[in-house]
Amino acid sequence: MLIDWPAEQGRLQALRATGTPRLLVVRDGDPPVVSDPLEDWVRLPAPDADVAARVATLAARARTPGEMPWIDDDGLLHRGDAWVALSPVEAALAGALLDRFGTVVSREALTRRAWPASAPSRNALDVHVLRLRRRIAPLRLELRTVRARGYLLQPAAEPGSPPAPR
User: Fold this and answer.
1) Within the chain, which residues score under 70 in pLDDT?
2) Which residues make Cβ contacts (< 8 Å) with residue 97, sequence separation at least 6?
3) How do strand 39-43 and strand 70-71 relate by DSSP bridges?
4) pTM, full prediction
5) What domains, with CATH codes, occur in the chain?
6) C-beta separation of 77 from 83 below 8 A
Protein backbone atom coordinates (compact mmCIF):
# COMPACT_ATOMS: atom_id res chain seq x y z
CA MET A 1 0.00 0.00 0.00
CA LEU A 2 1.19 3.51 -0.79
CA ILE A 3 0.82 5.90 2.14
CA ASP A 4 1.08 9.68 1.85
CA TRP A 5 3.44 10.68 4.68
CA PRO A 6 2.77 12.42 7.03
CA ALA A 7 -0.84 13.09 6.01
CA GLU A 8 -2.01 9.46 6.40
CA GLN A 9 -0.43 8.55 9.76
CA GLY A 10 -3.70 7.13 11.06
CA ARG A 11 -4.08 4.84 8.05
CA LEU A 12 -0.45 3.76 8.49
CA GLN A 13 -1.12 2.55 12.05
CA ALA A 14 -4.06 0.44 10.87
CA LEU A 15 -1.98 -1.15 8.08
CA ARG A 16 0.87 -1.87 10.51
CA ALA A 17 -1.56 -3.70 12.76
CA THR A 18 -2.63 -5.98 9.90
CA GLY A 19 0.93 -6.64 8.66
CA THR A 20 0.27 -5.11 5.25
CA PRO A 21 3.41 -4.02 3.34
CA ARG A 22 3.64 -0.23 3.20
CA LEU A 23 5.58 2.27 1.10
CA LEU A 24 5.52 5.74 2.60
CA VAL A 25 5.56 8.51 0.01
CA VAL A 26 7.33 11.50 1.60
CA ARG A 27 6.47 14.77 -0.07
CA ASP A 28 7.99 17.14 2.48
CA GLY A 29 9.50 17.04 5.94
CA ASP A 30 11.50 14.25 7.48
CA PRO A 31 10.74 10.60 6.78
CA PRO A 32 9.79 8.42 9.74
CA VAL A 33 12.22 5.99 11.33
CA VAL A 34 11.47 2.61 9.78
CA SER A 35 12.38 -0.62 11.57
CA ASP A 36 9.66 -2.91 10.19
CA PRO A 37 10.84 -4.96 7.19
CA LEU A 38 7.37 -4.57 5.65
CA GLU A 39 7.74 -0.79 5.57
CA ASP A 40 9.93 1.53 3.49
CA TRP A 41 9.81 5.09 2.26
CA VAL A 42 10.66 7.09 -0.84
CA ARG A 43 10.93 10.87 -1.23
CA LEU A 44 9.11 12.46 -4.15
CA PRO A 45 9.88 13.30 -6.82
CA ALA A 46 11.31 9.85 -7.47
CA PRO A 47 11.73 7.95 -10.73
CA ASP A 48 8.96 5.43 -11.37
CA ALA A 49 11.58 2.67 -11.51
CA ASP A 50 12.71 3.48 -7.94
CA VAL A 51 9.16 3.36 -6.61
CA ALA A 52 8.47 0.10 -8.48
CA ALA A 53 11.67 -1.47 -7.11
CA ARG A 54 10.74 -0.61 -3.53
CA VAL A 55 7.20 -1.94 -4.00
CA ALA A 56 8.59 -5.18 -5.47
CA THR A 57 11.01 -5.59 -2.55
CA LEU A 58 8.21 -5.10 -0.02
CA ALA A 59 6.04 -7.62 -1.87
CA ALA A 60 8.88 -10.17 -1.85
CA ARG A 61 9.40 -9.64 1.88
CA ALA A 62 5.69 -10.18 2.50
CA ARG A 63 5.87 -13.55 0.70
CA THR A 64 8.85 -14.71 2.78
CA PRO A 65 7.85 -17.54 5.11
CA GLY A 66 8.44 -17.04 8.82
CA GLU A 67 9.66 -13.92 10.54
CA MET A 68 11.40 -11.37 8.38
CA PRO A 69 14.87 -10.54 9.77
CA TRP A 70 15.85 -6.95 10.58
CA ILE A 71 18.78 -5.01 12.01
CA ASP A 72 18.34 -2.53 14.84
CA ASP A 73 20.41 0.63 15.46
CA ASP A 74 22.79 -1.30 17.76
CA GLY A 75 23.82 -3.77 15.04
CA LEU A 76 21.72 -6.64 16.33
CA LEU A 77 20.18 -8.89 13.68
CA HIS A 78 16.73 -10.05 14.80
CA ARG A 79 14.48 -12.81 13.53
CA GLY A 80 11.44 -13.56 15.62
CA ASP A 81 12.47 -13.63 19.28
CA ALA A 82 16.11 -14.51 18.51
CA TRP A 83 19.00 -12.16 17.74
CA VAL A 84 22.72 -12.14 17.10
CA ALA A 85 25.25 -9.31 17.46
CA LEU A 86 27.03 -8.21 14.29
CA SER A 87 30.29 -6.33 13.81
CA PRO A 88 29.97 -3.01 11.93
CA VAL A 89 31.15 -4.62 8.66
CA GLU A 90 28.83 -7.62 9.15
CA ALA A 91 25.93 -5.24 9.86
CA ALA A 92 26.66 -3.30 6.67
CA LEU A 93 26.78 -6.51 4.63
CA ALA A 94 23.63 -7.86 6.28
CA GLY A 95 21.86 -4.54 5.68
CA ALA A 96 22.59 -4.71 1.95
CA LEU A 97 21.41 -8.33 1.84
CA LEU A 98 18.24 -7.56 3.84
CA ASP A 99 17.40 -4.67 1.50
CA ARG A 100 17.11 -7.32 -1.23
CA PHE A 101 16.15 -10.31 0.93
CA GLY A 102 15.61 -13.39 -1.21
CA THR A 103 17.33 -11.91 -4.27
CA VAL A 104 20.94 -11.83 -5.44
CA VAL A 105 23.19 -8.97 -4.31
CA SER A 106 26.39 -8.46 -6.29
CA ARG A 107 29.84 -8.55 -4.73
CA GLU A 108 30.31 -4.96 -5.91
CA ALA A 109 27.17 -3.76 -4.11
CA LEU A 110 28.26 -5.51 -0.90
CA THR A 111 31.74 -4.00 -1.16
CA ARG A 112 30.36 -0.48 -1.69
CA ARG A 113 28.03 -0.87 1.31
CA ALA A 114 30.62 -2.25 3.75
CA TRP A 115 33.61 -0.19 2.61
CA PRO A 116 32.25 3.03 1.06
CA ALA A 117 35.59 4.89 1.17
CA SER A 118 37.83 2.16 -0.24
CA ALA A 119 37.78 -1.23 -1.88
CA PRO A 120 39.15 -4.11 0.21
CA SER A 121 40.84 -7.14 -1.23
CA ARG A 122 38.63 -9.87 -2.68
CA ASN A 123 39.70 -12.06 0.22
CA ALA A 124 38.44 -9.52 2.79
CA LEU A 125 34.88 -9.76 1.47
CA ASP A 126 35.10 -13.56 1.39
CA VAL A 127 36.28 -13.68 5.02
CA HIS A 128 33.49 -11.38 6.22
CA VAL A 129 30.87 -13.35 4.27
CA LEU A 130 32.11 -16.57 5.89
CA ARG A 131 31.88 -15.00 9.36
CA LEU A 132 28.41 -13.65 8.59
CA ARG A 133 27.26 -17.10 7.42
CA ARG A 134 28.34 -18.61 10.73
CA ARG A 135 26.84 -15.78 12.77
CA ILE A 136 23.36 -15.95 11.18
CA ALA A 137 22.96 -19.75 11.24
CA PRO A 138 21.26 -19.75 14.71
CA LEU A 139 18.55 -17.46 13.25
CA ARG A 140 17.78 -20.13 10.63
CA LEU A 141 19.07 -17.91 7.84
CA GLU A 142 21.49 -18.92 5.12
CA LEU A 143 23.73 -16.89 2.89
CA ARG A 144 24.13 -18.63 -0.47
CA THR A 145 26.78 -17.97 -3.11
CA VAL A 146 25.36 -17.51 -6.60
CA ARG A 147 28.28 -18.24 -8.90
CA ALA A 148 29.47 -15.25 -10.95
CA ARG A 149 26.56 -13.12 -9.65
CA GLY A 150 26.88 -12.52 -5.89
CA TYR A 151 25.14 -13.65 -2.72
CA LEU A 152 21.57 -14.43 -1.69
CA LEU A 153 20.23 -14.24 1.89
CA GLN A 154 17.22 -16.48 2.51
CA PRO A 155 15.50 -18.52 5.22
CA ALA A 156 17.29 -21.80 5.91
CA ALA A 157 15.61 -24.99 4.74
CA GLU A 158 13.27 -26.67 7.19
CA PRO A 159 14.88 -29.55 9.12
CA GLY A 160 14.33 -32.83 7.27
CA SER A 161 13.74 -31.19 3.88
CA PRO A 162 16.13 -31.98 1.01
CA PRO A 163 19.06 -29.57 0.72
CA ALA A 164 18.83 -26.80 -1.82
CA PRO A 165 21.16 -27.08 -4.82
CA ARG A 166 24.48 -25.26 -4.42
Assistant:
1) 64-66, 158-166
2) 105, 110, 143, 151, 152, 153
3) unpaired
4) 0.63
5) 2-63 (no CATH), 70-155 (1.10.10.10)
6) yes
